[in-house]
Design brief:
Blueprint: E1 9-13, H1 18-29, E2 33-38, H2 41-59, E3 63-67, H3 73-82, E4 88-91, H4 106-134, E5 137-142, H5 155-171, E6 181-188, H6 194-207, H7 211-220, H8 230-240, E7 252-255
Parallel strand pairs: 1-2, 1-4, 2-3, 4-5, 5-6, 6-7
């Protein structure tokens, strides 16, 4: 299927590895020009060079990268100094650490809210009006399946991402869809990423069980009987960014191998 987005420009956060890289890879395969951003300069440069070698040269697209912390004012300024207008924005920042809510102070909460709620809002604010003027825009926020099924040790993430979800529910229906701009959230379940491994290690440490036992139990609790792959997550993201997804907005798209047991 031709997604109809060749030649568009996309900004992808957390793009050096994991789900962010999966989304960047899927988009560049479709002929989308990229600005990739992540904090780790070396990993980001390697990821950008990999996409350039594998896809960009054949597709004739550009792959630019900005080593910066997009959750800061300075980081966002560096991104928009590289390019100001985007047709596609994939917001993605590392989640806050797991733990016991009794140990989190006000600063911990503010860091989580700043990274996982306010940063996507700032990126939306900076890009949607120009998208609407051009008659096309796609914003996909990578959040978490914990928005629908909270995980006790991820309280910082549960709270901050739920706040973003409520904001998107309103702004996505504020007249933007009628001008060709959609905003959706993509909720990953258990994908084979560094984030999952950190979470599993936290459970193992808290419970005293071996990491292998914790990981195997989590895998068996998923109806698909496996963890997801970044490449398949990226394919879902690319579809939501496509011309074919213009009638989908304000939605929370869950990709979790069937782990969430609810009807709705």
């Amino acid at each position: 299927m031709d997604l109809g987005i060749a030649g568009k420009w996309a900004l992808v956060g957390g793009a050096s590895k994991g789900l962010g890289f999966g989304c960047a890879q899927a988009l560049v395969r479709e002929g989308v020009n990229l600005v990739m951003v992540a904090r780790g300069a070396d990993a980001l440069q390697q990821a950008a060079h990999r996409l350039t070698a594998d896809y960009a040269q054949a597709n004739g697209v550009q792959v630019l990268f900005v080593p910066a912390d997009i959750t800061t004012t300075e980081g966002r300024a560096a991104v928009f100094a590289k390019r100001q207008e985007f047709d596609i924005v994939v917001t993605n920042a590392g989640g806050p650490p797991p733990g016991d809510f009794r140990n989190w102070d006000r600063d911990a909460w503010l860091r989580a809210i700043d990274a996982n709620m306010l940063t996507p809002i700032e990126l939306i604010k900076a890009t949607v009006d120009a998208m609407a003027e051009r008659g096309f825009g796609r914003i996909v926020n990578i959040t978490s399946s914990a928005v629908k099924s909270p995980i006790d040790i991820l309280g910082l993430s549960n709270g901050a991402r739920s706040g973003l979800t409520g904001f998107v529910a309103g702004v996505s229906r504020s007249g933007l869809a009628g001008r060709g701009v959609t905003i959706n959230n993509l909720l990953p379940g258990a994908f084979d990423t560094d984030r999952l491994r950190t979470t599993m290690q936290g459970v193992a440490t808290r419970t005293g069980q071996p990491l292998e036992v914790v990981t195997d139990a989590r895998r068996k609790a998923i109806p698909a009987l496996r963890f997801g792959h970044a490449e398949e997550f990226g394919a879902i993201c690319a579809f939501l960014c496509s011309q074919h997804a213009g009638y989908i907005t304000g939605q929370n798209v869950l990709a979790d191998g069937g782990a969430f047991g609810g009807t709705f």
